[in-house]
Structures are given as C-alpha cells and as structure tokens.
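Quick log. Single chain, no ligands specified.
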Amino acid sequence: MTEREFAIDVVRRLREAGYQALWAGGCVRDEFLGLTPKDYDVATDARPEEVQRHFRHTVAVGMAFGVINVLGPRSGEKAPEVEVATFRSDVFDSDGRSDGRHPDSVVFSSAQEDALRRDFTINGMFFDPLENKLIDYVGGREDLQARLLRAIGNPAARFAEDKLRMLRAVRIATGFDLAIEGATAEAIQDMAGEITVVSAERIAEELRRLLVYPRRARGMDLLYDLGLVAVLLPDVLPMKGLPQGLPSAPCGDLWDHVMRVLDLLGPETSFPLALAALLHDVGKPRVQVRTPDRYTFHMHEHVGRRVAEDICLRWKLSNVERERVLWLVEKHQFLSDARQMRTSKLKVTLAHPGIRELLALHRADALASGRTLDHVEYCEQLLREWTETDLNPPPLITGHDLARLRLQPGPLFKELLDAVREAQLEGTITTSKQALDLVQQRLEASADRG
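-> predicted structure:
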C-alpha cells in the first residue's frame, strides 16, 4: 500500500466511523499542482483518543495539540504513515507573553476554523479524496492559480503567532516560484528583526531546505529584500556594492557574482555545497585592497573560512556539515593551478570525499566569472584515469617503523612521515625499503646540518 493509498484509507475509515475527515495542508497544494506530496496529513473532527481507538498502530506525537501519527501495514522497508490532526484553533494569550513560536493552548474546532489558523492560503485548503472535492475557505485555489503567496487573514497576526513563518514564506515562494503578496511582504519587512526569537535549529532547517532549491539565488534575493539577511546573515551584507572586475571596467558587485554562482550549481546540490557557494567570497570585503589597475583579495579564502565557521556554529550545524562547508570555502580557489601543481599535493585534494562538490563549486565560480573551465576538466580527467589506490595508496611505513629506528614522536617524526608520503604520491618510491632508505637519507642530512 502506497502512502497515498493509505491516506485515502485513513479518510475512508474515519468517515465510516461517523467523523469528518479530509486531506489538509501541503499535500492538497501539491496534488493541485500535479506534484507528488512528500507526506499526507488528515484533518478530522475525531478527538485524539478516538483516532487511537480506530487504528491499531498509532504514535501520539502531540496529544495536547490533537496530533496522532497513524501507521499502516509495512510494505518493504517502511510502513506508510499519515499524520491525523483534530480540527483546532490556536489560542495566543493577549498579555504579550506568547513566545512567537508555539500557541499557548488549542481549542478543538471546525474545519473552517482550522483553515483560518493556518499560515498561508495555499496551505489552508482541504481535499476530500473520496469525492474528489476541494474545500477552500481561504482562497487558496485562486492564489495558487495566480502564483501568489498570501498569509491567511492579518499577516502581522500570522507572523506574530510563529515568527518562523516569515522565513517559511521565502522558502515556499522560492520552492514554488511564487510572488509574495504585498501586505504579506510588508509585514515580513516590518517584523524581520523578531525572527531571532526562533531557535537556531529551526532557522537552519528552513535555510537548509531553501538553499537546495534550484531557484536558491532568488530565495536569497527575497531574504535580502525583506530584511531577513540583515538579521540572519549580516556577515554577507558587505558583499553588496563591492565591485567586481577591474576598477576601470566594473561588472556588477560581489553579491551579484555570488548569486550567479548559486544559480550555476545546478538542481542537484547539497546544503553544504550551496552554503559554501554563498560564503565562498565572504572574506573578500575584509581584505580588499585597491591598486591603480586592480582590486586584490589576498588570503580571502582563509578569512572566509573563519567567517563561515562562525555562521555554522551560530546555526548549530552538525560537525559533518560544518567541516564540509569550511573545507569548500577554504579550497574554492585551490584547484585553479591544478596543471602546475605537484602531483602529491593534487592527489591529496582529489582523494578528499568532498572533491565532486569542490569541482562543482570551481565550475560554477569559473562560469560566473567568465573564466576557463580547463582546471575543472583536467581534474575530472585525472579522476577518471587514476584509481582510488593511485589517489590514496596504503602508507609504505608508519610511526611504528620509525619507533623501531629509536626515533621519538615529535616534529622530526612527522616531517619524515610526510616526506615519505609525498614521495610515494609523486611515484618516486613504491616499496617499504625505498621508504626506509629515504628516512635514512633524511636523518643523515639532518645530522650533517646539526
């Protein structure tokens, strides 16, 4: 049974038991657009405990808010799962103490009242899959046809209820290529500074989803126009107005360049790569020097790495995500001289697990700057020609071998292992005996210098 078939079955069983039951929210929007919903939500007048009585396998994910997950028969690796929520109205205290993230309480209500408490009209529609009928109390169908994202009711009130909705508006408008309705956009601009009450994890999750969209550059422009970049990413604001090109022939600013890079990454892009692309030149404003005939940005990749680390820590990204972003930012120019680079140095980078993302960043950066792709194509050719063993062969000797020579761990210890590894990657030595001979030569040379 597919997720969709199970979602229909859940509606049917609730209706047979005498309850109202409809598909709700994003799955209705997606079906209307001809897309395959990622999941299905059912709204009903059945109370949570009544839902639990009518289905054998359930998980109470939010009893106080009337939310129960209903699990279907296992098919393959995963059982289909549908979220069933009781029609409700959210209650926010009038004393100003609501946290801007969650309602203070809920009241179980009707389908129409449930629609009116949702965020945007295109997410406020219901659908009856048994009668193939759309139920729209908020004008979502018309807004979807007009490619418009509009808050339900008073936009400021909707955003006051959950400040993350401001960021979600940008993410949804980006993902579905919608314009944000005027009053809705104005409310975001007025309230942008209040987004800081939302947890870093929730903010990061919205940005994680936004940056993997093909239209991610438009999403960033929307964030900027609505005042959200200034609050969430003030680190990138200096890119606005920073000239690109020669002083005598400027060609836009750094922000425009970075947006072109984001556009050129392609549709299948990971979040770490997209974030690294956004931040790859973030160090430039901090190191810019103008000479009579050019601008220079020496060491900007290292400064950018430090800025990127601050942002990753602020958003509480995982260690894996953070390390990949920092590596990509620091190395975003590294392969430009690949043809002139020592083989050992190049192999270390080509063997890195993030190399395909680094090449994608190099490609997008070069295209956005009007530069040749020769270095990218050269590296891709080497990756086709070299095996994994060519790139990262087993070490010829280890620290244990040096210890048997009565050497103590320390700077010389590391220097010797690095020298052997470099020679191995260059192809000048291929056996353990040759490695030990090289160590002996290094030791003798060191003794002579001493």
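Residues 432-449 form the longest helix (18 residues).
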